[in-house]
Amino acid sequence: MRALVVEDDQRIASDLDAALGAAGFVVESCADGEDAWFLGDTEDYALIVLDLGLPGMDGLSVLKRWRANGRNMPVLVLTARGAWMERVEGIEAGADDYLPKPFRMEELVARARALVRRAAGQGAAVHDIGALTVDTNRMSVAVRGVPVRVTALEYRLLAYLALSNGRVVPPGELLEHLYGDDDAREANALEAIIARLRRKLGAGIIGTRRGFGYFLEGSAA
């Protein structure tokens, strides 16, 4: 799942990138409000972490523009501790959650995961779809209760399909959330990952709707 970190403090941005990357997100970052507005307005993100104090354009203005343009991705706002008016303004402008600085990375990751689940219409961290179980907190996978070892890339694919509520996900969308802006967005790379997962998980787990994309068997696809 793609996440955008908008933070002009390089140390905090680096820590956010590392924490969210370890939690299974494909993380992109920028430090300028104008760049953030453009990326959020033109790219597909499962989550945006947005600092309000940005150069170029302040975070509140960026958020208002996104929402005015119909961009409804989950946005977690970072604010200075004690700046309660900023938090109120952020929520009224369309923020989904806020976290005052300084904060613990564990809390930010927990809030980020909850926002992504909520945006997908799901409250639980454990997703049981047919014979497959995907635990997005533990980042683990099991088939009929038996744990299956998967790579980080394979886990991201399964987690994205699990959070898609049975929707058939087009290959291009899956590639974006697996690689972000990486140059490796090739259909044959995706097919190779799917083939590997089918060998590990067995038949009847990952379905294909030819010409449309992939889904998890046992979901509402």
UniProtKB/TrEMBL annotation:
Keywords: DNA-binding, Phosphoprotein, Transcription, Transcription regulation, Two-component regulatory system. CDD domains: trans_reg_C. The keyword Transcription regulation applies. Residues 124-218 bind DNA. Residues 124-218 form the OmpR/PhoB-type domain. SUPFAM superfamilies: C-terminal effector domain of the bipartite response regulators, CheY-like. InterPro entries: CheY-like_superfamily, OmpR/PhoB-type_DNA-bd, Sig_transdc_resp-reg_C-effctor, Sig_transdc_resp-reg_receiver, WalR-like, WH-like_DNA-bd_sf. One of its GO terms (cellular component) is protein-DNA complex. Transmembrane segments: none annotated. This is Response regulator transcription factor. It comes from Roseitalea porphyridii.
